[in-house]
# Entry
Amino acid sequence: MRHNLLLTALAVLLALPISAQTDNQHPTPTSSITYTTEGLWNTTTGIANWVNLLSVDYDFPLWQDGCFNLELLAINNLRQAQGKSGVADNLHLFSAIEDSPSTLALMTFGIGQRFADDNLLLFVGIRNLNKDYFTSPWNSVFTSAMSALFPTVATNFAVADPPLAAMSLHAEWRISNHWSAKLSIYDGVASELWSELFRLNIRRDGVFMIGDIGYSGDGEGYVGTYNLGASYGYAPSVAEMARAGREKSSRASVWLLAEQPIYRWHNGRQLELIAHGAWAPQSDCDLYGAAALVCRSLFAKDDYLGFLVSRGLYTGGYETQMEVTYSYGWRFLKLQPALHRVFTSRRDYTVAMMKVVVEI
# Structure
């Protein structure tokens, strides 16, 4: 709690220059503060947990089309802070924020420069994968970790997944109004320790690379958003890092994320189909797939009702997850109840969740 208050105070201090600089002829710093809290209850075992996440995002213009980016993250996980495991013994976390406690993690720290009329972005510094990949608008509706990194990436590589980050070189190219491409090169071992974050030791840690090419419609018709990506790492695996080892191995994966509009009503209501697919041969999670339906503006403007089914095949067994969730927001506040049903090769669980997000 003390560290969360410290982060809040830091966020307020970072936001001060925004009100102080009002000259419209010069770019002004921008900042945002997001607080997310989740209450989780495993109705099968009776185990409950409370997770809090506080994120501060700050962008400070440096020169023409150049910007310094900073993002800080603090996570309070009640059960893990007490030395206990999560609410369910599953292979891939069903909650996108039920991560290890982190006092003050550095998610982004670096300089981005735009070129070619803002069509090309180059970034050098510390960065997090979730900032750039698997974060399409409709996919982000769900509370499951499947709405973030696919398990063929998160399970197989010690990558920059919150609260971890790593030194990186990141590039984005807006090829046209519809086509885009991304490419990122990371140090092979991510960390949350400030003493390790600023290192770039490919000989010791290896390297991790990921990229995708995407096509998106104009948001009006029946052309959706489609991303085809691949990743390659010559680095220690997650299992190897858990054994405190550093032996590197080569692993690769390919993945697809598609969001397809199914039907649009005249009143703004919309039905969307989401599909995931990923393959990572000879890995700890070698096959993953998911399908989801999401309806927007069903009961109120810009509310979301979603149903997701996913399945992953692991060396330790299989896992199938189902999630039904509903979210509704008012200005800076969003409420989102969700119900998860998890089937594993060891045991089945039902987990109820209540998520609250405050963003300013």
User: Anything to note?
Assistant: The chain is about 10% helix and 50% strand.
